[in-house]
Amino acid sequence: VFDVGKDVEVIIQSSNRRRGPPSSPDLKLFQAKVLTPKQTVIKAKLQLRDDGSISVHFTSYIPGRHRLAVQVEGNSLRGSPRTLEIKGEPDYSTGTTLLQKLPTNLLEGILNSLCVRPDSGGNMYVLDEGVIRVFDADFNPLHTIDLLDMTKKPWNFTINSEGRIIVSDTSSHKLFVFNTDGTFLHEIGSEGKGHGELKTPLGVTADSYDNIAVCDAGNYRIQLFNPDTSFKCSFGDEQDGETIFPVSIQFNSQGQIIVAESSLWFSNYRPLPVPPGGFDAANAVECVKIFSRDGQVLQKFGEPGEGRGQFWAPISLAVDHWDHIWVADFTYGSIQVFDEKGNLKGVFASEEKDKGAGWLSTMTAASNGAVLYMSAPL
To answer: What is the pLDDT, as a whole number, of residue 357?
Structure first.
């Protein structure tokens, strides 16, 4: 039994079942992967020990049974696969390793990324000025996907369970669907106010069944699409007498829809319409709402301000494997985490916090359950 968030070390003999032990094992021939209870894959690190055995290391923030598989040239090693149990609770203190800053020194030239997402195999996809840059789990560059052949101003994207990339475009007022190799597949929606039509779509996400939810920001609403991308339903647009200002969106494990709203962002990000009646700081909408699939508000938390539990332009959301909600603030560069009921669990500030600059922050839950973020002044 191992602890959540701690280094797991497993010793495996380097002998191959068919060929016997090599005289000098070459780690380049070995591969180790861990399948988590969430069916995501963690790439483990390997070290050769003096006695010829192999030390396998990985860290997981997801409790439950993990399956470790080590292979050499496609053949399983003795003692592999192996089942490991990880237990414990996440740590939300200031020095937690649960929140990890992406190594921007390895992501050369990426300063104002609007979105970062992992695939199920642990590769990382980073949106950067119309191009998605793809890195492996160690942040070695793999390839790039040029979106500008099809899109005009890509803002956000998600990757569904089939490995399809769904990109929101604030200028074309559509969603675009690509394979992970960059092959364009089809579009979703067109400019307008009707069912399935979009106006300045911002955040987009997909659940485990590949239903799609998008912040149809210019129409002040949320729209849902079926896995076949046909229109499913919409909600918002003065729901319960209050205009919604959706900016970022995620599903939790229960299929509920988490939405960050910001009338301040609407008043400053010009492709968006000016809030009805103009921006009024005294009545600003800066909050997070949890909706049911049919659009009922289940929970609302947050208010305008710079204190704990308050926001000024919450522009990025992440939902971790505990269904806790991470919120990045544009104005003050802070990241706050709340439980599924909206209770504040922790507050984290950017390392180079500067109240004179807005901060473009993006977050995502990694395959091992950690929350990764990038942050840079605008």
So the answer is: 46
